[in-house]
Amino acid sequence: MMENTEKYIRPTWDEYFMEIANTVSKRATCDRGRSGCVVAREKQLLVTGYVGSPIGLPHCDDVGHQFKQVVHEDGHHTNHCVRTVHAEQNAICQAARLGISLNGSTLYCRMTPCRTCAMLIINCGIVRVVCEKKYHSAAESEAMFLEAGVKLEYVREEVLKYDKQ
């Protein structure tokens, strides 16, 4: 019988929480991005969130997407599904419902939070954001985090791609 000689290496705390965020994303009900996130402080998981419709409303996976097209200042167009609440927003809402302060915490997510999520993250006192990948239009959120003093880190410097961006 062969013995496994490789030493087991425990994941770092960032790797651990990112793995949990990716597991949470499997509950997402919109196939565009299937995003999930977790918020932790002092090595303790506080809340989770995933992309999904508001409680009691139909899900994209069941009834289809509700697209809105945005025309940006430079003239390019992007498509956004507005049927769902973002993972970061759902995690922040869960914390509010449960009376959990997020002040001083770290948020782990699949891609750079959008502008609205970035503003909520800043206002609830999250001090660090760790993203698995970049969002296709991340510059505005990155600038806000920098100005507000929220530390932003990427696991990989690649842009997350999904259908109908």
Description:
Helices cover 28% and strands 24% of the residues. The protein is α/β, with parallel strands linked by helices. A five-stranded mixed β-sheet has the order 2-1-5-6-7, with helices on both faces. A two-stranded antiparallel ribbon has the order 3-4. The longest helix is centred in the first third of the chain and has 12 residues. The radius of gyration is 17 Å and the shape is globular.
Notable characteristics:
single chain; 165 residues; alpha/beta; five-stranded mixed beta sheet; two-stranded antiparallel ribbon; 7 strands; 28% helix; globular
Short description, anyone?
The protein has 165 residues and is an alpha/beta fold. The chain is built from 5 helices and 7 strands; from the N terminus they run H-E-E-H-E-E-H-E-H-E-H-E. The protein has helices spanning 13-24, 60-63, 87-98, 115-123, 139-148; strands at 36-41, 44-50, 67-71, 77-81, 106-111, 128-133, 151-154.
